[in-house]
Amino acid sequence: MLSYWKRKREKRRLKRTFKEYGYEVKQFQVEGLGEVEYAQWLHPFEGPKEVTDSQIRFYRSYASEGSMIIDIGAHTGDTTVPMGLSVGKQGIVLGLEPNQYVYKILEKNASLNPDTTNIIPLPYAATSEDGEFVFNYSDASFCNGGYLSQIKNQRHRHFYELKVQGKDFDKYLREHYAEWLPKLELLKVDAEGYDKEILENMAGIISEYRPNIMAECYKKLSMEERQALYDSIAKHDYTVYMNDTHYLTEGFVDSAKRIKLTRDTMNVKKHFEIIAVPN
Question: Is the pTM of this model over 0.85?
Answer without folding.
Answer: yes
